[in-house]
Structures are given as C-alpha cells and as structure tokens.
Design a protein that fits this description.
10-stranded mixed beta sheet, ACX-like_C, Nucleotidyltransferase, domain 5, Dna Ligase, domain 1, 6-stranded mixed beta sheet
Length: about 725
C-alpha cells in the first residue's frame, strides 16, 4: 500500500432488501485507517435514488470537511476501492422482474426446458405444475451436431471437440434462415438472447457463430451456454444460460445507474477499484459480474465475514453455523475451517435450476420485517415482508404493517432511545413503540389473549425462531453433522435479538457475535478475496497420471495471469478440482485437493461419495467430466490467521435499566443495559441483559454469560 493509498477511503457495502450497510475504512491522518459503519434504508425515494451511493457520499462529507452535494456526481479522487454485494439479481429472479429474453435452441428442441428433467417437486401432488420458464420467446436454430460414435451411416463432417470426443456436424448452421427469425425477435422488442445448442460444451463453434450474428444485428445482450459454463447436461446448462440472459441486462442497468452517480474516473481509470461479490464468495470486477454468478451476491458477504471472524476468534478447528437475520429474510450456512467454504454446483433458486459454483446457503422468509398474521387459529410469520417502504408499524410510515420488529420492540428487545432516529416525515423521529403496541393489542384480542400483548408478541417470536432453526437442522443433522458441536455465529441487523433463544433450541453451547455483527455482510466484503475461476469439460477416464494434469496446469496459468492483469502480484492461492463420477451414473461430485501434484483425487472422491450416499461402487470405473481451477488473490493482512490479544476479565457495570420480556421468566422490569462503547476487552455481562451495539442489539438471556474478547467481539456461553 502506498502513502497515497493511506489517504484514501475504502468502502464495503451490502445492499439488502430493507437496509443498506456501509463499512468504511477512513484515513486517520497518521498513515492508517479508522473503521466506521453506517446503516441507511435501501429504499427512500423521497431523499435519495441509490442507497450505496448515498452512504458513500455521507461518509465523504462527514470525514473530509468537503461539500459533496447530493445532486452532483461523487468525486472518486479520495476513494481507493468500493466493494459491493447486492440482491438485485436475487430480487429480479424472485419477483420475475428481469429483462425479457428469448431462447435460441437447436431446431426440434423448442420445448426442451419446458419438459425439463421431469422432476416433480411435490411427488404426491395430484395437480402437476410445470415449472416456469424465464424466456418469453423461442427461436429454433437450423443446425444439428451429434456425437460421432456409432453414426458412420449418417452424413456430415466429423470434428474433434474440446474434450477429445468426436462430433458429427449432421446439419451445418443455416445463417440465412436464422437471420430472418432473429429479425422478427428484434421487431417484437426483445434485445436479450440465450443460446443453447446441443453438445455445444464439446463443440462450441455453432454457438459462437450464432452469438456473432446476434451481436451484429444489434441485440443488446447475448449469452451463449458454451461461454457461460460449458458443462454436460443440456437442461441444466439451458436454464443457466437463460438465467444469465434474463438477469445480466438488469444487473448492467443497475450498475450503470450506480456508476452514473460518480465522476467518470470510477469507470475510466483504475484509480478506484470497483469489485462485486459473486455467489461463490469471491469478488469480481464489474465487467465479469454477470447474472448467473450474482444470484447469491447479497448473502455471500456474510458467509465470508462469519467464516473469517470466527476462525480468528475461536481457532481453526471449530465448525460454525452462520445465522444471518436481516430485515426481509434469514440466511443460514455452515463453515468448517478444516474443509473450507462449502460450495454446491447445481441449485434450484426461485424455481430455476442454475449450474454454477455457489456457497451453500439456505434462505428462509423470516426476518425483522416479516409480517405477523393470525390465520385459522395459527400464528404465522412471513413469508411476506414489510420491507423498507412502508416497513413495520413502528417506522412511522403510512401503511406500515405488523412485523417481527414490532414484536421485539414491544418486548423491550429493541430500545428506541438507542435506535437511529431516521423515521417520520422529517427523518429525525424514533421508533413508534405505542403504534406497535396498539397493533399487537388488536391482534391479541383477536387471539383471545385480551390485553396480554407480551404473550402475543412472545408467541410470534417463538414461531419465527422455529422457522429459522429448521434449515439449520437440515444443514447439519440431515447431513450427518451433530449440530450441538457447532458454534452459532450470529449476525445481521436482527440476529442478536434471537441468538440465545436459537442456540438453546438447537442445543448449541456457544454463540459468537462479532462487534460488527449488524453489518457483518459488509465487513465480510472487506475481508473477501478477488477470485478467478477457470473450467473446461473433460470426458476422460480417471488415471493418476492422465491428460487432466496438463489441462490443470494450463487453467492455473490462465487464472493466475488474469489476477496479475488485475494488479495482484504474489500471494495468489490456487485450488484444483475434478468433477468426477462413477461410470454408468449421472451424479458427479466436484472433488477438490489443495495440491494438484500430491493430492489424491480418488481418495477425496470416495470419501465425499461415502459421506453423501453411504456406500462405494468398488471396482467401478471413475470418469472425469470437468476440470476446474480456482485462483484467489489473498488479502495480505492475515486477518483470520491471527488470534485476538488476551485480556483480563472483569464484571461490567450497566449503563441503564430497561423493562424487557424474557421467555420462561416473564418481564424483568430492571434489566441491565450495557452500551458497547463502555464495554472494554475482558468485560463479562451476565444475563438477563441487553447489549446495545452501534448496528444492532444483543439479548443476553437468563443463565447466559457474554464475554468481550480482545477484538471487542462477544462470546456468549
């Protein structure tokens, strides 16, 4: 880092469904940086058009003593880097608000993705529902490529593909006919296309020709399956390329609008580094940030954050469950430092199959903004959310709806006096506790509880907690892991209010809450590494010294070169993968080793296969479907490899008292409240208690003890 860089700001921003979290490293004037965090509503159209840009503008104005008017582009001369995670792609997919696109598919396969693989999500449902498709039009491409083996009786040129397999071009591409069909698409206003031709993962020339033709005709966006991700299985590959064509233009529009709020230096020079979080937990440059890689951009930062902070605080031999409770939803994931991040390579998100590396994250529709309703004698939490606009009842906005936040507020788990005063018409009012009480009282009467709104609110909190425990059990117990041996790493704006109750329900003894838990997704972006993935199809038989070794070396060189071109020198780590399966099966496992020369892929595959399926096919031939290399430019701060400084424990003194309701105890009228600035490393806080952080609230339940470690993080037993 140069002396000039020491005078610049670094931003890491997580734009969620309800709040946008901003983590910034601000120059302190002595060659170092001070860490600060800010939180603002993701949508506030009356006051700003883009929350991440507004967060940057406010911090620059606050710490530079310079004017940064909202109506003018933000000056980038003081900004070293901007890292962002966004839910734009996720929301577009969930709400089906992406860009209208067309599917270009080999003639005769127009209904391929509608038929799919005939998997029925609810096998006993008598009413079969076909899965939705994202494309609005289908154009059949006059061409046909088939596998050459056992087709000597057919006409056509035989060509060796990229995997070494031979294909027969039974029907060459008819560009004249195709051009007329594409023109009709343009005339109908469709400007984004997804290209899926049979066997293009082996022979991609026809797809390239079609893509070039589309671009020459003026299509704004073209996604070709052989370029997006060249893997076998046409149905999954087709859904992936369609998702890319559907989402990428929407992402590009958002990125353009974001960049338009800054001066031209952001996009025309390398002085300010702009990176985006991908679904696999790695950062990518703006031009490489595409639709199929962005679906889990939002929650991925949180996974990186809790993984690196718990490894630093608790050591590298403790498995952790991440619990990220935000305003709209809750994300759960698992991390074992001995294994690394858990990735999955084919997922179904919002009914759409996506074939791409993603962190293994499960989302449940229960968050601080989840609506509370009473239907047919049942207490229901979510899946609908109040969002940021109008938000919960306590937000003082017209049309506000009763939500989990209102229940926590009434129970005393949120303290209005320590919550940002950003509500009301003038944006300077506190949370409206009385409005929440009135709304809950109305529901309490309907439930037959009379005026006992504490019982009503606590009941909804129990339902919300159980909804969030369920996916944690599925991710651990259902896969053979004992959930009780894990640590619960709790973060997100609403997570600290539920952490102890969740741990108790799961049988977990230890809860870890980072000092930036309320904005840990943003902090995780600051800790993340820039990543380059390279992958090619293989179609090889497994041999310990097979041709796959040469391919791995080529991919490693390509990946490292890409990172070096991005400005990284040294400290580049690579990981090597073979996508392997037993001959005669269609279930492959992406098998990883750290050392491509000495790692035993067969042993790693068999270990993973036995854990997943409980048996091995001894004697069955192994095949390699794909070869992959993942290179990452590791941050040089060594954050997760050092331990917090040791401290001497002391009993903390509370700052004030509050009336708080606790499950199994009732309302404790004089609950000690501790303010984070007054809790020094070594402080011990015994429950029942409330700890107020700058970005969240931690509820320390009775019989629980919180200790502040040398970094200022909280370990609750």
């Amino acid at each position: 880092m140069t002396s000039r860089d020491a005078e610049k700001f670094r931003f890491a921003i997580d734009r969620g469904g309800t709040f946008t979290d901003v983590y910034a490293e601000v120059p302190n004037g002595h060659g170092g940086h001070e860490r600060i965090v800010r939180k603002l509503l993701s949508e506030d159209p009356d006051n700003y058009s883009d929350a991440p840009r507004e967060g940057i503008r406010r911090i620059l104005q606050e710490f530079t003593a310079e004017a940064h008017p909202p109506e003018k582009p933000v000056d980038c001369s003081r900004i070293e880097s901007i890292r962002m995670g966004t839910t734009v792609a996720t929301n577009a997919l969930l709400e089906r608000k992406g860009t209208p696109c067309a599917l270009l598919v080999t003639e005769g396969f127009a209904d391929l993705l509608e038929i799919g693989n005939q998997t029925r999500p609810a096998i006993f449902d008598v009413k079969i529902r076909r899965p939705d498709t994202l494309y609005t039009k289908v154009v059949e491409v006059p061409e046909r490529v088939i596998l050459a083996r056992e087709t000597d009786y057919l006409p056509g040129q035989v060509i060796k593909g990229r995997t070494g397999e031979e294909v027969r071009v039974e029907r060459p591409l008819d560009k004249t006919t195709l051009k007329a069909r594409l023109q009709r698409l343009l005339d109908e206003g469709i400007s984004s296309v997804a290209i899926l031709l049979m066997h293009s993962y082996i022979y991609g020339d026809h797809e390239k020709e079609v893509a070039d033709l589309c671009r020459s005709m003026g299509f704004a966006h073209v996604s070709a399956s052989s370029e997006v991700l060249a893997m076998a299985k046409a149905v999954a590959r087709g859904h992936t390329v369609v998702a890319d064509a559907y989402l990428t233009p929407t992402i590009r529009t958002y990125l353009k609008n974001f960049c338009d709020g800054f001066d031209r230096a952001l996009t025309e020079t390398d002085d300010t580094r702009l990176l985006f979080m991908q679904s696999d937990g790695g950062l990518a440059r703006m031009q490489d940030f595409t639709g199929h890689k962005a679906i889990l951009s939002g929650p991925a930062g949180g996974v990186v954050g809790f993984a690196k902070t718990t490894a630093r605080a608790l050591g590298s031999d403790v498995a952790v469950v991440g619990f990220d409770m935000g305003g709209t939803s809750t994300d759960v994931s698992r991390y074992d430092p001995r294994v690394g991040f858990e990735h999955i390579y084919e997922t179904v998100t919002a009914g759409v199959t996506v074939q791409a590396p993603q962190l293994d994250i499960t989302t449940v529709a229960a968050g601080g903004g989840s609506l509370l309703t009473y239907e047919h004698g049942l207490l229901c939490v979510g899946p609908e959310s109040a969002g940021a606009h109008p938000g919960p009842v306590c937000y003082r906005k017209k049309g506000g709806k009763l939500a989990v936040t209102d229940a926590n507020l009434v129970l005393g788990r949120l303290l209005p006096s320590h919550f940002p005063r950003i509500f009301g018409e003038t944006q300077d009012q506190p949370l409206d506790t009385e409005a929440s009480r009135r709304a809950l009282r109305k529901l309490s009467v309907e439930m037959g509880l009379g005026d006992d709104i504490d019982a009503c609110a606590a009941g909804f909190i129990r339902v919300a907690n159980e909804a969030m425990c369920r996916p944690i059990r599925n991710m651990t117990q259902m896969r053979g892991y004992d959930v009780r041996t894990h640590v619960l790493a709790c973060f997100g704006g609403a997570g600290g209010q539920h952490a102890c109750a969740m741990a108790r329900a799961l049988g977990i003894d230890t809860v870890f809450v980072h000092r930036f838990s309320g904005v840990l997704s943003a902090f995780g972006l600051a800790l993340a590494d820039e990543v380059v993935d390279k992958q090619v199809p293989a179609a090889q038989k497994w041999q310990r010294e097979g041709p796959w070794r040469g391919t791995l070396g080529e991919l490693e060189k390509e990946a490292i070169t890409a990172l070096e071109k991005a400005g990284h020198r040294g400290n580049i780590h690579t990981k090597y993968f073979l996508n392997m399966r037993y001959s005669g099966t269609d279930t492959s496992i992406m098998t990883a080793v750290e050392d491509s020369d000495n790692g035993d892929y067969q042993e790693a595959f068999e270990r993973a296969y036995r854990r997943e399926y409980g048996f091995l096919m001894t004697g069955r031939e192994l095949l390699i479907d794909d070869i992959r290399v993942r290179a990452r430019a590791v941050k040089e701060d060594g954050f997760e490899f050092t331990r917090p400084p040791s401290t001497e424990e002391y009993e903390a003194e509370h700052d004030e008292l509050a009336s708080v309701y606790f499950e199994g105890v009732g309302r404790v009228e004089k609950t000690p409240v501790f303010l984070e600035p007054n809790l020094k490393p070594g402080a011990v806080v015994r429950g029942p208690a409330i700890i107020v952080q700058s970005t969240g609230t931690i509820v320390v339940e009775p019989d629980c003890t919180a200790k502040v470690n040398g970094d200022g993080d909280y370990v609750i037993d």
